[in-house]
Amino acid sequence: MSEPDALSAAAAPADLESLQAVRQSPIVDPGGLTFVYRGAAEAVRLRLWIHGLPATQPFERSGADDLWVLRIEVPENSRIEYKLEIVRDGREEWILDPLNPLHAEDPFGANSVAQGHGYARPEWTVRDPRAREGALEDFVVHSAALAGERHIGVYVPARFRRTRRYPLLIVHDGLDYLRYANLQAILDNLIHRLEIPPLIAAFTQSPERLEEYAGHDRHAQFVAREIPDLLQHSFPLHPSPAARGLIGASFGAVASLHAAWRHPGTFGRLVLQSGSFAFSDIGHHRRSPTFDPVARFVNEFRRRPGAPAERMYLSCGIYESLIYENRSLVPLLRQHGIEVRYEEVRDGHNWENWRDRLQSALTWLFPGPLWMVYE
Amino acid sequence: MSDVLILGPQYRTPNLREALASAGLSGPVATITAGWQEREGELGALEEHLGQRVRDLRLYERAEGVLARDPPLHEAYRQRQADLLRLQEIYRGRLDHAKAAARDLLAAPDDSQITRWARRDAVATLRRLDATHLRMIERVHERFTAHWSATLQPLIAQQQAEIKHMIDEAQAVCIAGGHVAVLLNRLRLFGLQRLLRGKPLVAWSAGAMALTERVILFHDHPPQGAGNAEVFEAGLGLIERTVLLPHAATRLALHDAARVALLARRFSPAACHTLDDGSLLHWHRSRLRTATASLRLLRTGGTAAVEAAA
């Protein structure tokens, strides 16, 4: 790989010889990223999901026929997910970057990942072999509210003891948090580091999330009443709202806020990541019809927020179109006496963004015994 | 007054065996590992290091048993812990403001007489806040004791007799680190202050903190918050005029002169001593007799090797 400094001074990439020798893409420098693609094509484009930038950016053919280069300016500490669009024989194909070993998976497949200058994956997101592993148990909830059975995964921390009382965290899109945000290992790690207390986590996964997570009263009943009722028969749960939390991302954040709002006094702690909080001050919101029930709820919530929780953690990537909605929510929550911690990061609407915020969120809402333990 | 050997953390490079040998303590040893909570009594590594079997007083398990036998007592105990937690939160909030003011003044380049007065007063404010907090904690404990000691006494009498017997049979008692609040609660519950009096003690990390007059919690780089050191509770008071700071090398910003100076001034006249790997302080008849691998925090913001009293 060529030296990063060789590319930092100007928008033009380094000399042809060094680009041809590139084995890994993109090339990272403090001012941006230089993407390199080698292969026969009629056109090569970068497809990325950054609010404010064009969704498609063309590579330029550089000298030799099969060498394609694109440089974009990217602020420090950015993390970007992308694909390459290759045009051959008039056909477009989206592919992972063959010169980039970094991928991020999500329910729709996988994207290549460009880590901007200064970004490093937090070490607590990677399983620490010293951390004892909690267990994941399968439970069936016979839900009257949802008129059917629902499977939930229940995380039980290592060294679980019946004589203790545990906080409960209910996770919307729970299986996705496990698969794509490594939440089980993160819980193990943060408990091991004494940054959060041992807790019970319930992972729910809706088969109809765009409907059930969009301000759905029966789903709120399921989350706020039926899951805790079932689990408190099996585990010694602390009854205080300060020991009850909900977490969700995107529509899952809407479901979390809605459930807490519909059942005040139940959940004292909320983690709302990149919430799809569509609203309109006047007229109709400008998103797809899927957001209609969300906007109805959020508009109602903005009129009378009440006291859904004592403490909330919110985060949003500044490369997301939802940044406006999330920023707008924060002063409203604070005005109503809710303790809010809000973080903006240079990332998009994706699971690794949500993964990287979990330490900040969970240690804020459920501080562990770090201050108390001196081994 | 007990003879106490004070050690740093023992899990990486233990020096417990050497410490016992240096004090001529070669007989049977009893341990208190209540700070390990559910891991209490997992003594394999300790016994391997010492080369002898030891008996654990099982204070954590005993306390669980006592509380389980009387649900109203258990509930009152939990309520007391909730009250103490709330008190700590209130104190922490007040401390944030007072500490920020003191730190700004200590770091100010201006060294006029006015600034010096303001500095002294800012530190005095912190000290008053610490003292008030400690008094309020004591009040919560007194209220609990006044209501529940008659219920508690018959429940713990048998346990106390067993504990006393085990202590009498041992030449020394070792108090391990761990969760300092859990440890301190169990030591208080079974009246260990009285039972340990006169017995040679070896204590490390949280175990040593619990023996001081004031337990100070500290971490300069926590995942959340300003990292203000805070008074937690009164300890057993077997080690006087000393604040012990285990894991100081990793938990404290010892290079930050303003932080170090403030810590030293705030808890003065108690001396702030670090406890890291290899530390060994011998507390004998209310003074330090020997000191190895421990730093004293100075009012000027630096550190110096702890020196034993002449």
Short description:
Chain A is of the alpha/beta class and 375 residues long.
How would you describe this protein?
The complex is a heterodimer of chains A (375) and B (310). Chain A is of the alpha/beta class and 375 residues long. Chain A is built from eleven helices and 19 strands. In chain A, the strands form three sheets. Chain A has an eight-stranded mixed sheet, sandwiched between helices. In chain A, strands 3, 4, 7, 8, 9 and 10 form a six-stranded antiparallel sheet that branches. A four-stranded antiparallel sheet of chain A has the order 1-2-6-5. In chain A, helix 6 packs across helix 7. Chain B has 310 residues and is of the alpha/beta class. Chain B has a seven-stranded mixed sheet with strand order 3-2-4-6-1-11-12, with helices on both faces. A two-stranded antiparallel ribbon of chain B has the order 7-8. Chain B has a two-stranded parallel ribbon with strand order 9-10. In chain B, strand 2, helix 2 and strand 3 form a beta-alpha-beta unit. In chain B, helix 4 packs antiparallel against helix 5, helix 4 packs across helix 10 and helix 5 crosses helix 10. Chain B is globular and about 60 Å long. Classes of the chains: A alpha/beta (375), B alpha/beta (310). Chains A and B meet through helix 11 and strand 19 of A and strand 5 and helix 6 of B. Strand 19 of chain A pairs antiparallel with strand 5 of chain B, so a sheet runs across the interface.
Per-chain topology:
The complex is a heterodimer of chains A (375) and B (310).
Chain A: H1 5-8, H2 16-20, E1 27-29, E2 32-38, E3 43-48, E4 56-58, E5 60-61, E6 67-73, E7 79-88, E8 91-95, E9 103-106, E10 109-115, E11 135-143, E12 148-156, E13 168-171, H3 174-180, H4 183-192, E14 200-203, H5 209-212, H6 217-234, E15 244-249, H7 251-262, E16 269-273, H8 292-303, E17 311-317, H9 323-335, E18 339-345, H10 351-356, H11 358-365, E19 373-374
Parallel strand pairs in A: 13-14, 13-15, 15-16, 16-17, 17-18
Antiparallel strand pairs in A: 1-2, 2-6, 3-4, 3-7, 5-6, 7-8, 7-10, 9-10, 11-12, 12-14
Helix pairs in contact in A: 6-7
Chain B: E1 4-7, H1 16-22, E2 29-32, H2 44-50, E3 55-56, H3 59-69, H4 71-107, H5 113-169, E4 172-175, E5 178-179, H6 180-189, H7 192-195, E6 201-204, H8 206-209, E7 214-217, E8 230-234, E9 242-246, H9 248-251, H10 257-267, E10 271-275, E11 280-284, E12 287-292, E13 295-297, E14 303-305
Parallel strand pairs in B: 1-6, 2-3, 2-4, 4-6, 9-10
Antiparallel strand pairs in B: 1-11, 7-8, 11-12, 13-14
